[in-house]
Amino acid sequence: MRGIRTLPTGVERTFGADEIIVTKTDPRGVLTYANDVFLRLSACTEEEALGQPHNLIRHPDMPRAVFKLLWDTLGRREEIFAYVLNLALDGAHYWVFAHVTPSFDRAGKLVGYHSNRRRPDPESVLAVKQVYDRILHTERGRPTKGAAVDSGWKQLQEELDGQTYDEFVWTITNRIGR
Ligand SMILES: Cc1cc2nc3c(=O)[nH]c(=O)nc-3n(C[C@H](O)[C@H](O)[C@H](O)COP(=O)(O)O)c2cc1C
């Protein structure tokens, strides 16, 4: 699989303020839908994307603790807004402001997840990156994946300093342009 060994090239890719990157997954996070904007930004074809786990575009500079928060939140049947750095299959990277929601059938059974992503402001990315980099730093010093998640999670709480991640995200997002 091409994506697994992709090394970041350091090339940043961006997209239009009027564009939305959309994907849908099954309950395990396997891609079932990807729009053209996703395919363009991620430098992959629909055939390469569908049927793959969403970590296809995971960037090594994304803290594990943020994905724990994402899955914990979705596991409570709640939606989440999050800043995410993604790695395209050609090694370029792009930042998104994602809104990920669980989808339910009429009986209330989880049928999958849906993510809509907009282009973040560069100032928001700078603020988030500082926090993520400190979390990454603690995670990278740990010998196992489990220990990395634990230390990253503690660092995330320290960074939030009593705020929820949701409050933090909206503080950063709303202060732009004022
Ligand atoms: C609807 C949905 C969208 C997701 N979008 C992304 C994404 O854009 N980038 C990403 O790295 N992970 C995304 N994830 C999380 C991945 O499933 C995965 O947890 C993450 O890439 C970390 O991978 P790892 O556990 O293998 O380290 C998404 C998950 C869901 C359910």
TrEMBL record:
Pfam families in UniProt: PAS_3
Transmembrane segments: none
InterPro entries: PAS, PAS-like_dom_sf, PAS_fold_3
Boundaries of every PAS fold-3 domain copy: 32-114
Identification of the protein by name: Chemotaxis protein
Taxon lineage: Bacteria, Bacillati, Actinomycetota, Actinomycetes, Micromonosporales
